[in-house]
Amino acid sequence: MKDFSNAIIECVPNFSEGRDMNIINQITAEIEKVEGVRLLDVDPGKATNRTVVTFVGNPYAVIEAAYLAIKKAGELIDMRNHTGEHPRMGATDVCPLIPISGITMAETVEFARKLGERVGRDAGIPVYLYEYAATAEYRRNLAEIRSGEYEGLPAKIVKEEWKPDYGLAKFNAQSGATVIGARDFLIAYNVNLNTTSTRRANAVAFDIREKGRQQKDEKGKTVKDPNGDPVWTPGLLKNVKAIGWFIEEYGVAQISINLTNMNTTPLHIVFDTACDRAAARGMRVTGSELVGLVPLQALVEAGKYFLLKQERSIGVGEAELVRIAIKSLGLDELGPFDPQKKIIEYRLRDTNARKLVDMTVTRFAQETASESPAPGGGSVSALCGAMGAALGTMVANLSSHKKGWDSRWKEFSDHAAAGQALMTELLYLVDEDTNAFNAIMAAFGMPKGTDEEKAARKAAIEAATIYAIKIPFRTMEVALQAMDLAIEMAAKGNPNSVSDAGVGALCARTAVKGCYLNVKINAQDLKEHPEVQPLLLKAEEINAAADTKEQEAWNIVLAAMK
Questions:
Q1: What CATH number should be reported for the domain holding residue 552?
Q2: How many domains does the chain have?
Q3: Pick the catalytic residue: 93, 165, 207, 433?
Q4: Could you give the CA distance from residue 211 to residue 220 in angstroms, rounded to a whole number?
Q5: Do 298 and 426 sit in the same domain of this protein?
Q6: How far apart are CA 439 and CA 353, in angstroms?
Q7: Residues 142 and 83 placed together within one structural domain of the fold
Q8: Could you tell me if 316 and 397 lie in one domain?
């Protein structure tokens, strides 16, 4: 049986309570008491009377926490008294599991089914399975399962085709029913309109959503196919579900959107398409709202998209791209938008982890100067390389908006984006070089009493040493590319910054030469090893190339200063 102790899944249950924080806190307390689970976000909505909760952990811990939360919600929330703008059919309306790392979708499905079985059996709540966990194709779509909502459930649940997957086919008046499944990452996203009309918001929703709208004839009646089913006109965007509603709390109508595949249809395309369709119908999009968490990639790509529309360089830092995305999408219209709280990767960061690259310059220098052997030459070399890439990127960005060079903005934007990628990898290598050294020390500290322990220790030392060769070798490769960027910028970039490009080339050259020394010394006892031998040969080539490029950079910069 596979070990899932290091696997991570995300769970995003939606509870039908968004106004009473006492009830919400009692539900989330059930989640927080489970070891191995981390509560990331609690997002209540008064108008929808619904709270979206996000937590992560290993699969066993997650389904335990989910069960306890679903059970508690069933005890505290009485659906007979529930009203709200959002479609719903139960106290815990929907509870999806999303694979994050170390687990496949098929394996996540099995955990969803285990959770569903327990909820149906032990909590007495009828359960339907959806998306990848669905037991029939017509049950994959959440909207189809939830059709009729809580009010239609008494008649629906006794129909043969709508008997629950787990639990009794009997209406639970207090808790309703719960939909549990496994799905891809979903972005819950609302677009704000300058209208109070739900009907007009729905018109835009039908324009953009994949399902589209039902066709109507000249008399306004629904057109049907030979089987008597409505004929649909597809909408503009794939993997988009949307409806319109009025949010009394904000005094505006919104297009409520579920984006089920941001790789097919990115967030910024959803926003811009909504803007276009709203404008075509005499309305204006005033901003937007993210419910729950969002992947970093979605905002980074949005930042790049809006910069490109302005013919500006996309070779800026991650924080700037996120800032541009927030402003361009109007994510802060209805309230503050804190990236540290809303971006899933930021929430998952181990804030206690000690990183060299997060230190101040003074602290890094002091750490290097201490009696500890790490950080050492490899980490310092990688830092030099990162600074070289940073200078090359700076010159590219300055060149992209130099007066009189407007036609060349894209050329320099591409260089700046490449430089950002090089800088990011070299910053990663700063810490990874020290991590590699620490792995060697850990291997040397393994027990060596029995023959078996000695063999395991020897193998661990060899594996760790090879990794400690590969890391500085990779720094050499990336730093050489940073030299190329700096030389290109010295030759073609803003002439006022030619000396900066020259310094960048020299910093990157230091990284190559410094890590060449690290490769050589770490490989002393493994020169003939089949994995190491080709690295040593290639390292010689890169080292020689750096000498040639250094002279090239020197010549270009000095010639420009004459």
A1: 1.20.120.680
A2: 3
A3: 433
A4: 19
A5: no
A6: 16
A7: yes
A8: no
Residues 38 and 175 occupy one common structural domain: yes
What H or E segment, with its residue span, contains residue 234? Answer: none
Whether 491 and 372 map to the same domain: the answer is yes
Strands 14-15 and 92-101: antiparallel
Catalytic, 86? Answer yes
Full residue range of the structural domain in which residue 72 is found? 8-182
Domain finish residue from 318, 348, 378:
348
What is the reported pTM? 0.80
Active site residue 525: no
392 located within any domain: yes
Beta strand segments in 248-372, E: 252-259, 285-291
Candidates 86, 93, 165, 207; catalytic one: 86
> Is residue 3 one of the residues assigned to a domain?
no
Same domain, 493 and 365: yes
Q: What is the CATH number of the domain that holds 38?
A: 3.30.990.10
Domain co-membership, 376 together with 444? yes
317-334 burial by CB neighbour count: b if 16+ within 10 A, else e?
eeeebbebbbebbbbeeb
Determine the Cα–Cα distance for residues 476 and 47; give it in Å rounded to an integer. 56
In a domain, 115, yes or no: yes
pLDDT tens, the chain, 562 aa long: 577 877 889 999 999 999 999 999 999 999 999 998 999 999 998 888 999 999 999 999 999 999 999 999 999 999 999 998 889 999 999 999 999 888 999 999 999 999 999 999 999 999 999 999 999 999 999 989 999 999 999 999 999 999 999 999 999 999 999 999 999 888 999 999 999 999 999 999 999 999 999 998 888 889 988 888 889 999 999 999 999 999 988 999 999 999 988 989 999 999 999 999 999 999 999 999 998 888 899 999 999 999 999 999 999 999 999 999 999 999 999 999 999 989 988 887 766 566 899 999 999 999 999 988 889 999 999 999 999 999 999 999 999 999 999 999 999 999 999 999 999 999 999 999 999 999 999 999 999 899 999 999 999 999 999 999 999 999 999 999 999 999 999 999 999 999 999 999 999 999 999 999 999 999 999 999 999 999 999 999 999 999 999 999 999 999 998 7
Q: Is residue 2 part of a domain?
A: no
- Best CA proximity match to 50, nearest among 8, 113, 94, 11: 94
